[in-house]
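RECORD TYPE: inverse folding
INPUT: C-alpha cells
STRUCTURE:
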C-alpha cells in the first residue's frame, strides 16, 4: 500500500480520518497483493491453454469473478510461470478473474 505522510496534515480531524481510511484499506486482503483483472475468451475445449498475463512475476492466486458459456474451467496452478497462466476447459467460455499474488503485509 502506498505510504501517505499523514503526519503533515495539520487539521487533527482530517488526519484522524485519513488514518482510519488507511487502516481500513490495509485490512483488505486483496489490496495487500498484486492483482490485475483479466477477461479471457476461450472459443473451444482446451487442455493446458497458455494465456500470457504480462504481470512480470509468477502469479500464485486467482480470484475468479465469473464464468459464462458451456465450458467448465480448471486453473492449472502448477503450470503458472512468469509469462503464462494455464487453463483447461471442457468447452467454450469466457472467464473473468483477478490474477496475481497475495502478499502478507507485516505492520
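DESIGNED SEQUENCE:
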Amino acid at each position: 500500500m502506498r505510504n501517505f505522510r499523514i503526519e503533515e496534515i495539520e487539521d487533527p480531524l482530517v488526519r484522524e480520518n485519513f488514518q482510519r481510511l488507511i487502516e481500513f484499506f490495509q485490512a483488505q486482503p486483496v489490496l495487500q497483493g498484486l492483482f490485475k483483472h483479466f477477461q479471457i475468451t476461450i472459443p473451444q475445449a482446451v487442455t493446458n491453454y497458455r494465456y500470457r498475463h504480462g504481470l512480470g512475476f509468477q502469479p500464485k492466486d486467482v480470484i475468479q469473478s465469473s464464468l459464462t458459456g458451456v465450458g467448465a474451467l480448471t486453473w492449472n496452478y502448477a503450470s503458472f510461470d512468469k509469462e503464462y497462466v494455464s487453463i483447461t476447459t471442457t468447452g467454450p467460455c469466457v472467464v473473468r478473474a483477478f490474477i496475481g499474488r497475495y502478499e502478507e503485509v507485516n505492520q
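NOTES: The CA atoms of residues 6 and 15 lie 6 Å apart.
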